[in-house]
Please model this.
Amino acid sequence: MTSKPDQKHHHGNLRAALVEAGIALLEEGGVEALTLRKCAARAGVSHAAPAHHFDGLAGLKTAIAEEGFRLFSAFMLAALDRGPKTPRGRLKSLCRGYLEFGLEHGGILAVIFGERGLGSLIPGSSREQAHAYLLLREACAPFVPAGTNALIVEVQVWSLIHGFTLLCLAGEFGDGRAPLDEGLFDQVIALLDRLPQASPVANT
Model:
C-alpha cells in the first residue's frame, strides 16, 4: 500500500526531502528547472509546503548550496586521496576533483556560486563553504612566497580551474568527461608547473 505524501515526510525530514528533490531537479534540467512548486511535487507534498521551511526560492537555493558544498568538498578530497602526495601533485589533484564535480554536477555548481560568483566560496558564510575554500588554501600554501598575500596565489589557481570548468560546461571541449579522458585537463593544468614552490621557513 502506497504511503500518502503527509505520511512519507514528517517533522524534520521534510526539509531534507525538499533539498533532495531540488538537487534532483538541478541535475536533470539545470537552474532553470528549479522552482518551489516543482520541488514540492517532486517531494510528494503540497505546493505550499516549502514555505514552512524556506524563505522563498532563495532560501531553498541556500539549503541546496550547503549540501552542494559538502559534495564539492568530497569530490576534491577523493581526488586528493587518489593522486600524488607531493605539493604540486596535490594541487593538480584538487583541481581535477574541482573539474570532476563541475562536469557531474553542473546545476549544483551554478547554485553554489549563484549571483555572487566566486566570492560566495570565501570563508565566512557557512562551515561547508569554509571547508571547501580551506582545501584550496591548503593545496596552494606551499606555493605562497614568504611575505606574499596568500590570496594572490589562491586566486591564480582558482581562476584557472574555475574558468576551465565553466568552459567545459559550456561545451567548448566536447561532451561529458572528454576534457579529462582526452588529456586536455592535463595540458591546461600544466600551467601550474610555472608556480614556484616556496622555500620552507627556517626554524629559529
